[in-house]
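Throughout this chapter, every protein is written as a compact record of paired, labelled lines. An example of such a record is reproduced below:
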Amino acid sequence: MIDHLFGRALPHDNLDADAAATAGPALYTHAMLPLRQWLGDVLDFCYPHHCAACAAGGEGGGFLCATCDGLLCDLRDAAACERCAMPLASDGAPCPYCLGKGVAPFERIVRLGVFADPIKQVVHHFKYHGRWPLGEHLADRLCATERAKGLLTETQVLVPVPLHFRRHVRRGYNQADVIACRAGHKRNSGIPVVHAVRRVRDTETQTHLSHEKRLANMRGAFALRRSARRVRGKHVVIVDDVMTTGATLKAVANVLRAAEPAGISAMVIAIADPRHRDFQAI
C-alpha cells in the first residue's frame, strides 16, 4: 500500500535534460524514509497486504507473498556464470554462452535472477506502472547476494544506464537510477552514483527487436557528460534493470571507455533469454 502512496516520483516537466537525468525518487526518498515507514505501518494495518507479483492477499510486510518469495529465492540461487551471468546447468559447470571468456568490455556481470516470474512481474510494475519502490526492493535482494556483495566491495563508482530526456519526463524517474542509488546507499561507506553518460537519441523500445536490430538501435545513442571525468581510474559498475542481448550495456560501456576507467563491470536485476526461449535452447 505504501508503494501506491509514494508510487510515482514527482514529474520533472520544467527540467532540462541534464537536470532530469539526475532527478528522481532517490533525491528525496531517503530523507522521507521515516515518514514512509510510519505511513507503511499504518496502511498495512488498515489495508490487507497484496503481493507485488501475483496480487494475492496475505499477511506480513514483505512485497511478495510466501509462494512468490520462494520462487524468487529459487531464481536467485540458480547457478549462473561468474563472468556473463547467464544460467548454468549446475554450479561450476562450463558456460555454453561465453565459454568462460565473459562479455567484452565487462570484467563481469552479476544479476539477481533470470527474467521469469515473479521477477518479471515485479519489474513490469516497477518500470511501467510508476511503482518505483519495487525497484528498491529488488535492489535490496540483489545487493544481498554474495556475487553482488563481492562486486560492490571492489566498486568505486556506479553509473546508471540513462533514459532519454523525453522518456525520463514521461516516466517520472529512471529505473536504472533507482537501482543504482539504492545499491550505493546499501554500502556502509556509500558508493557514489555518477551520471557520466547521457542518451542523445530517443531510441526505439527494444523489447521485440532482434540482436542485430538492437545493436543498430543503440549505435550513436549515448555520449559522455562532463561528469564522466569522475570515473577516470575508477572501478565502475554500469547498472540497468534487465539485460537481454547486452546491446544497451555494451553501448554505454563503449562510450564510457573514453573516460578511462580502471575497469568496467555490470549489475542488473534480471537476465532475459535473447532467443526468447526461456533458456531452453542455446
